[in-house]
Amino acid sequence: MPVDGMKVKIRGDVSVYEKRGEYQLYVKEIIEAGKGELYLAFERLKAKLKDEGLFSEKVKKKLPFIPQNIAVITSPTGAAIRDIITISLRRFPNLSILVVPSLVQGTSAAQEIAKKIDFLNKYFKDLDFIIMGRGGGSIEELWAFNEEILARSIYHSKIPIVSAVGHETDFTISDFVADLRSPTPSAAAEMTIPDKNNLINNLSLLKSKITRAVKRNFELKIENINSVSRSLKYQGPENKINQYYQYIDEFSARLNSRIKHQVELYEERVKKESQRLDSLSPWAVIERGYSICRKIPGKEIIKRLEQIEVGTKIEVIISDGKILSKVERKEAVSN
Amino acid sequence: MKNKKKVEDIPFEEYLRKLEKIVNKLEEGELTLDESVKTYEEGMNISKICLEKLNKTKKKIEQLVIEGEEKYSTKPFSEKEGEDIINEF
């Protein structure tokens, strides 16, 4: 596979596209003809700077999470600056961007960019970071970013540097030295500028989580109080009193049935006694033929002769009525 | 005054972490009522600080004009395409 900077031999035809007057090269075969000059220079410088520790992860500076002031060193008229500004402001509308115009290709470009990095370090110390780069191009057009003078300036910068050169597949020395390498200028903005809306959404999410959690805590506490007061009620005087009530209820029911039983017993006894009384009643005797004599008036029962005189009016009570009579004679019985 | 300066010095992401911790603490539900009220207030305060931090900067797009070794000025970014972009926002 041919790569940038490779020296190749090509076999094919050249023709002219007449409509536009353009030369066209139809390639049939590509043969590698050794590493190209630029490729070798790149590899040599890369190895050298790596040995010196310029690419070490340890010396890379961290970018602030919320940048406020950033600078962009690039061509003021390219698509790169346009993309960076557009994307940055879309992600974070209130951002301060300092555009630092510079040549980005040609023999003096590397030196110019290096100078601007130094200048910013001197006079704009409060910058959060610098995005330095350009859009895509040939290896020759991107060459400024492979030069040692720029690599050293990036390394010495106190302000973090983001390298944003060419396309995804282009790797430059600047990319290795920079504190952050982004594949393209647009990606540099995407990577370094946070999405403010996301942050705000995240904040409100956390806020509502907090509110919800506190509310839940309160509800749990209330639940606790309720359950404690329930068990308190169970052990408290109210329940004791209820228990007594219940005891009393039970007791009085028992008492009732006991009394009822007693009453029944008495009733039974009364019935029996009255039956006995019946059999003792004088009427029962009279029924059998005996009679009772009583004085009139006074209704005194006559048991002895001495109670009457001849001529005393008496009544004789028999089973179905009484006989009124008068004493005619008294006759004692001697036995 | 001293407190105010401290807020400035603490970066946004640290406040964000604090806020996440507060959420965790509250969601564990081990706090007393007093503590959860206090933590709630702290959380609301921090989220306010975070929002302030996000809104602190003013939008500004300027171009650096280097006029000499130690001389420079800034002017509004005036590249024609750039101007169009600025007007979009």
Supply database-style keywords.
heterodimer; A: 335 residues; alpha/beta; five-stranded parallel sheet; three-stranded antiparallel sheet; B: 89 residues; alpha+beta; two-stranded antiparallel sheet; 4 helices; 2 strands; 64% helix; rod-shaped; disordered C terminus
Helix content of chain A: 40-55%
User: How much helix, percentage-wise, in residues of chain B?
Assistant: 55-70%
E-strand count of chain B: 2
Quaternary state, please?
A: heterodimer
Indicate the proportion of strand residues of chain A.
Answer: 15-25%
Low-confidence stretches of chain A: none
Compressed to H and E, one letter per element, the order of chain A equals EEHEHEHEHEHEHHHHEEE
Low-pLDDT stretches of chain B: 81-89
Shape estimate of chain A: rod-shaped
What value does the average pLDDT of chain B take?
81
The radius of gyration computed from the alpha-carbon positions of chain B, rounded to a whole number of angstroms, is 21 Å
Beta-strand share of residues of chain B = 5-15%
Given the helix and strand composition of chain A, which structural class is it?
alpha/beta
